[in-house]
Amino acid sequence: MNEKLLKALYEIITPEKVEKFDRIAAERTNHVTVAVENLFQEHNASAVMRTCDCFGIQNLHIIEKNNKFNVNKDIAMGAAQWVDNHHYSDDLYPTTKCIQTLKDKGYKIAATTPHTEAYTINNVPIDQPIAFVFGTEQTGLSEKALDLADYFVKIPMVGFTESFNISVSAALTINTIRTRLEHQEDFEWKLSKEEQTLLKIEWCKRIIKNPNLTIKDFKRRILDKEA
Fold it and tell me: What's the distance, CA 98 to chain centroid?
């Protein structure tokens, strides 16, 4: 059904979009994901989202305890349309909810912090699904996020300052991890064909008019042909 539905959707979008969806979905991953905690500067939030899109990270988890995650469209450059955003703001302890949700999905939690001699982004284990959690601009991750982490991870630095800007930290981390994944052959880390199909259907829904009605009609036609 899903492949037939995607084929039908492809007939009503431009060939250019079809080519992009096929090419980009093939490079997407859920093996690595990113979570940000309580960012208050919208240019940083938007830059992290754009970085996720550029490096093929499909899911961004957003913890909003005190600060709402606002997107600057000039910086995000449309990334919000293609990256799936998951917000955690309605609970008393949104950090706990986010991290527990990720753990339930099988992710190891990597807390990014300069104040540890544990792993670096060059040697943190990546054989299992991993979620990198980045903290707020001034104080970093909360104690709760650090307490729930499986790994502590830092970016090697040789200057006087002890940390990068949050958006730079995310870019360096994701780039390094993506490069490491590209050079390993022990496990699959990109989306499966079925996952790619479902993602491309979702992307189609985001650019067509009346997507729910259109898909309902297409499904009915497919079922009628199969009857």
Answer: 13
User: Does the pLDDT of residue 75 top 80, yes or no?
Assistant: no
Predicted model pTM: 0.92
Q: Rounded distance, CA 192 to CA 198, Å?
A: 10
Split at pLDDT 50, 70, 90, the class of 74 is low
Q: Say if residue 150 is exposed, middle or buried (CB neighbours under 10 Å; 0-12, 13-18, 19+).
A: middle
178 contact partners, CB below 8 Å, separation of at least 6? 32, 55, 56
Q: pLDDT tens digits, residue range 159-193?
A: 888 778 889 999 999 999 999 999 999 999 999 99
C-alpha dihedral, 131 to 43 to 39 to 152, nearest 10°: 40
Can you list the domains of the chain with their CATH numbers?
Answer: 1-26+196-227 (no CATH), 29-182 (3.40.1280.10)
Q: Is position 112 annotated in a ligand binding site?
A: yes
**Rg of the chain taking only CA atoms, in angstroms:** 19
In the three-class reduction of DSSP (H, G, I as helix; E, B as strand; rest coil), residue 220 is classed as helix
- Annotation-wise, does 126 bind a ligand? no
Nearest to 86 by CA among 75, 74, 97: 97
Residue 132 confidence class, pLDDT cut points 50, 70, 90: very high
